[in-house]
Amino acid sequence: MEIPKLSTIFRSYNRLASSIPDQESLLTQPNSRKNGFRNNFFVYFRRLLSGNKTDGGSRTEAEAKVYSWLYALAQSDRDLVFEYVGSTERGLSFTEAERRLRENGPNVPIEYTCPSWWHLMWNALFHPFNIILIVLSVLSYLTFDYPNGCVMLVLVLISVSLRFYQEYSSSKATMKLLEFVRCPVKVQRCAGRVTQTELIVQVDQRDVVPGDIVIFEPGDLFPGDIRLLTSKDLVVSQSSLTGESGATEKVADIREDLSTPLLDLKNICFMGTSVVSGSGTGLVISTGSKTYTGTVFSTIGKHKPPDDFEIGVRRISYVLIAVMLVVVAVIILTDYYTSHNLSESLLFGLSVACALTPQMLPLIVNISLAKGALAMARDRCIVKSLTAIRDMGSMDILCMDKTGTLTMDRVLVISHLDSQGLSKEKVLRFAFLNSYFKTEQKNPIDNAILAYVYTNGYRFQPSKWRKVDEIPFDFTRRRMSVILELDLDVTDKDYYMFMVTKGALEEVVNISGFIEHVDSGVIAAFTPEDQHRILNMGETLSNDGLRVLGVATKRLKTHPSGNDNPLESNMIFLGLITFFDPPKDSAKQALWRLAEKGVKAKVLTGDSLSLAIKVCKDVGIKTTHVLTGPELELLDQDSFHETIKRVTVLARLTPSQKLRVVQSLQTVGNHVVGFLGDGINDSLALDAANVGISVDSAASVAKDLADIILLEKDLNVLAAGVERGRLTYGNTMKYIKLSVIANIGGILSLLMASLIIEFEPLTPRQLLTQTFLYSLGQIAIPWDKLEEDYTKTPQKWSTKNLPIFILWNAPICTLCDIATLLFLLLYYNAYSPSVDMRLFRSAWFIEGLLMQTLIIHLIRTEKIPFIQEVASWPVICSTVSISAVGIALTFTPIGNFIGFIELPATYFGFLVVLFVGYFTVGQLVKRAYIMVYKTWL
Q: Which of 575, 581, 827, 922 gives 407 a disulfide partner, CB atoms 3.0 to 4.6 angstroms apart?
């Protein structure tokens, strides 16, 4: 194999040292806080409308350099590795270690500091909608309109407080990554000026530097990326990276090649992984942010780009600001032209601005989200980020691991077969004895065998056996054996010993020289045909998703002594035993419910492909397109995206591959992605997904990054959450559409009336009263219901939909207002100076209030309101109450104080005709709109 050139390795390593991306947004590096306010101000505008996301089609530059560095050292022999890293077999001197520590910094994967509270407060406050309300509140105070100013400030306070709390909570998630690497480490250092002496010292993990030689034992965490120097029966758990509970054998005396997947490299150990058994020494080749862990997890905690809903609300804010500036300016000039009273004109313009602003939007949104969160809490589901409920309504793809989500996360015995494939109790009996007398910690396989025997009433009487010796499991032999002594006849003291071996089927077959036909008890030679037939049987069972172990025995005449390994030869093959982690009973039903609601499931797992396919078939997930992580690495960017669109099952994935899959679905596929995971290896995908979902038993960093935490691993909770998310989204869209339509239509009518008549259509106090009553009535919207068809499909914000919706529906409101204006002018001669202007204002007030109150019943449904579809009782009660209060107000002393008078009965007759016509025309426009655009809300 060709040895990498030294200069190439050093160039790769030096480039790596300077390539770690800067961290921005919520979590910042210590030196990024200078000129914080000014920088944050401009950063906000740069990202205001940016939706740029990594598409996941290829590795980042930093990841590519780390991969190159690790593969180069995995391919090199021991001497070259020392040369590349700049170390010796004695280890670094204390002086050199201190210099490298100053040069490289502390050995932590991600060096972050929590942002200051004012930084988070500024991010939460500086939103266009908040700015509108703050400006209007200040102007209200300047014009002595204290109640209105106070109400708007309270609304801003609610919105800012909720967002500040959410961002402060999420900013702590990245710090959790440091917890699993804080530990003391044994390193070999050299000391002495003339004669150097090797010393074993214990240092803090943060003080380990590249070039250190570390000594590790069972239970130790690797403090950096390590190239093994020596190893003895070394078994390492990489669950923090892969999410799978199985351990991996590591070997020092091997040179890898590029065809081996990175996490399968035998001579490389990764930062944060741990030693299960065995011991060894290794050379630290990377520390801190330059490690594999530090690089792939470097994106955690970064600010997510705003979703379509947030972008849409911002754009609405900009439209309202533009309309407000134009309309208010025209109204102020018009009013000043007729009244010649600048202060009164400014106050009237301010009132119009308040009426144009959907002041209740933050409250409506947050009430809807909180209501959904409480409902999910009753289903034993904790909602950390309220906006995640809304995103669940838009979610159309759910990515998940299979372990514990689709399956019971518990191994069960499926069958115990002899060499002919027939179920035989003798195979189970000896497998049971092997597991029962095993001294080392029992694994899930052993527990499954014991549980199966006990629960099915077998009586194998282990008390009649005594263990003589044991040959423990190791990853070279892939089997374990126990030597047992059976008292056959106590009277004549005739003892027999048996060795019982259980392990990987191919390994047990290789050490067997005989085969027992259990039915007849005949023991025959183990022919190549027998071996081939049994291995084929095992392969067939494995392809069905079962884990297969072989069982063999051997009778011994004497006590074993010396080397026990030769005893594992010429054994009698008994049969095989199979295991399976069965799918949950609720999984298939839950996936069907999700599919019915337009949410597709994709399985992203670190397990084997055959096992993943078996589980997916059992729960109803299509397996026509499947792929593994190593195969994914071979694809170019375009092929990657095309493949991700089709596949439903991806197995043997690394954390960075899970992230790339999620990013590809989001950017190229334009999907709203949910991700369900519970390990550190899932944290990248959890952080990037639109909806991050974890479980109560998950790793701390996974729970901190998740938006939703399930107290029980049950997908039915998510199916219910999707429905509630769509209910929340639908009710929010109702308010946005009806408020924008009513406000724009009403203000345009107000502008037209101001140009026609010689006085203000409504005084500032009357206009603010109308706005307050209308806004109060909309609080009931979160308690409204939705049509069943609406919750069956994912709901996403459409950039084009809202402007078109306004253009179709706002003119109807303006048309009704114009009809009212003409009726007042022509029937009551309201433009005449001899007619009390209070009549006009009272009539205009009631018509405008009823219009804004009743419009929800037209907007909320595709059907005919009050006939085919009726709103919920809270909405009906709100409509009746606000309408009654508005009408009654003109008959009270309070109304007289505001400037109202009693209206004649003929006007109320006109209103009945007007609103019947409004609902008729509105329903016709609605049907035409649905025919053209195939949607409504």
A: 581
CA distance 640 to 642: 6
* Residue in the block written with tokens 């967002």: 163
Secondary structure letter of residue 786 according to DSSP: -
Annotated catalytic residue 585: no
φ/ψ of residue 607, rounded to 5: -75, 175
Query: According to the model, what pLDDT value does residue 5 have?
Result: 37
Range list of β-strands (E), 794-869: none
Cβ atoms of residues 449 and 432 within 8 Å: yes
Q: Dihedral of CA 276/281/287/290: which sign? A: negative
Q: How far apart are CA 831 and CA 337, in angstroms?
A: 17
What pTM, to 2 d.p., does this model score? 0.70
Residue 56 to residues 194, 296, 632, 678, Cα–Cα distance (Å): 54, 12, 12, 21
For the record, the structure tokens of 907 come out as 């006007």
Question: Band of the pLDDT at 40, cuts 50, 70, 90?
Answer: very low
Q: Tell me the three state secondary structure of residue 573.
A: strand
Distance (Å, whole) CA 731 – CA 860: 8
pLDDT digits (tens, 9 = 90+) for 572-584: 999 999 998 888 7
In 3D space, the residue among 716, 772, 843, 620 whose CA is nearest the CA of residue 155 turns out to be: 772
630-656 pLDDT, tens digit per residue, is 888 888 888 899 999 999 999 888 888
Which tokens hold the place of 328? 């208010």
- Cα–Cα distance, 238 to 805 (Å, whole number): 53
* Strand segments (E) across 364-520: 381-383, 397-400, 412-418, 465-471, 479-489, 494-504, 512-517
Tell me how far apart the alpha carbons of residues 732 and 669 are, in angstroms, rounded to a whole number. Answer: 26
Helix (H, G, I), strand (E, B), or coil: what is residue 650? strand
Contacts 24+ apart (CB under 8 A), 256-263: 256/71, 256/74, 256/75, 257/1, 257/75, 258/71, 258/75, 260/74, 261/629, 261/630, 261/633, 261/652, 261/654, 262/67, 262/70, 262/71, 262/292, 262/654, 263/238, 263/654
Residue 889's closest CA among 769, 767, 750?
769
Q: Distance between alpha carbon 363 and the CA centroid of its chain, in Å?
A: 26
DSSP string, 873-908: HHHHHHHHHHHHHHHHHTTSHHHHHHT--PPPHHHH
Q: How far apart are CA 216 and CA 645, in angstroms?
A: 43
pLDDT above 70 as % of the chain: 82
> Does residue 497 carry a pLDDT above 70?
yes
